[in-house]
Amino acid sequence: MSFIVAIDGPSGAGKGTITSILAKKFNLLYLDTGATYRCITLKLLNENIDFNNIEKIKQVLEDTKIEINDKKFFLDGKDVTKEIRTKRVNENVSTVSHIPEVRVSLVNLQRKMAQGKDSILEGRDIGTNVFPNANVKIYLDASIDERVKRRVKQNKEQNIDISEEDVRKNIEERDYNDLHSTVAPLKKAEDAIYVDSSKTNIKQTVKIISKIIKKEKHKYDMIEDSYNMWKETPLKIIARNVLKFIFVILYKIVFIPKNINKKNLYSNKDEGVIVCANHISYMDATGIVMQNKRKVRFVAKSELFTNPVLHHWAHIFDIIPVKRGEGDLKSVKLCFKTLKNKEALGIFPEGTIDGLKKHTDLKNGAAYMAYKAKVKVIPVGIKGNFKPFRRVIFNYGEPIDVSKFKTDDPNWIENATDYIMDQIIKLSK
Ligand code: DC
Predict the structure, then answer these.
(1) Cβ–ligand 1 contact at 170 (below 6 Å)
(2) What CATH topology corresponds to 4-225?
(3) Tell me: the pLDDT tens digits for 42-88?
(4) For atom 5 of ligand 1, which residue has the closest CA?
(5) What is the pLDDT of residues 397-414, one digit of tens each?
(6) Domain boundaries, the chain
(7) 8: Cβ below 6 Å to ligand 1?
């Protein structure tokens, strides 16, 4: 996924000005989503369509082409940048934007416009609905007096003739509609950062938000970089072996590990293999990686890679990042590549530390990839609690062939995963 910044907030909070400066500064595609609602409103008004005639509106949505080029908006090929800011549109856009069919269609369009591009979107529901996984979410607010003042000034600059009284009435009305709507009401996303611009000028507000974007962009770049595996150079191999040497000594002193039937990890030495264990602590994967000559590449949540030390560590040990909660194709590709290279891939079917205790659903990724790549699964039961100077046991089980679970039963993959987990539990007793 690309880098997405969501700027939400009420009318006149300064979203447009601020977003446009930030877009330039961070080289992001700028998308004013409000303008898409304005375009449709203009079209419905031009064609005299009753806002209650949903069938007709649906048809208009299908037949309408909205495009953006820089800060210009085109409706069916015609530049309507100015026209969508007129009184006529101002007075009707709120009503149109609350028609569910309009929202579904335009949210889809907005997602498509930003697809695959690092973008900054301003609107009302970007962080809550359009891009709920946005990298940065800002809720930009300002007092009503300040917002009226700004809109009046903006109108003057654009030669739009609306009285201050009308502007205030219009903003108040829109605030009410936006906040009380049953369809996508304006509200701050739980994880959005609240920025009040009432008492800060444009430069100061930009500075505040820039700082947030910079930090998140750095994190994002670190995560993206973690998918670019470092080449297996002599220096990398030396670094890995030196770290392993030091770590094994420390590990043996602190956790007094005992390995049982480690040979099972080597029984399929000339093929890829998936190592599946119970997940108790970060030290469990470390124990498997450090105590084996065979390289085991674990899959780990991508957030770990934003820490500079862990970032280097992950590169040296070829850890595979995975973004949770989204189909991470890049990660899956790296897993299959690992298996194709006849390496060992480490996956915790519990998905998270103590997943079974937390009653999270088991993850089927290991069983699925083992089936697709035609490799065996090595279950590992880990017993112990990783408290210093208490023994930890790593018990390696017999390789499991998941293909024997393949039937016409649509739940066969879940059955295979359950079987793997059962073996792990038995081995950890
Ligand atoms: O930001 P603006 O004033 O140009 O927005 C025009 C209208 O569109 C406004 O009534 C709110 C609505 N809107 C929305 O419902 N969702 C968005 N993401 C953006 C704008």
Answers:
(1) no
(2) Rossmann fold (3.40.50)
(3) 999 999 999 999 999 999 999 999 998 878 999 999 999 999 999 89
(4) 34
(5) 999 999 999 999 989 999
(6) 4-225, 229-427
(7) no
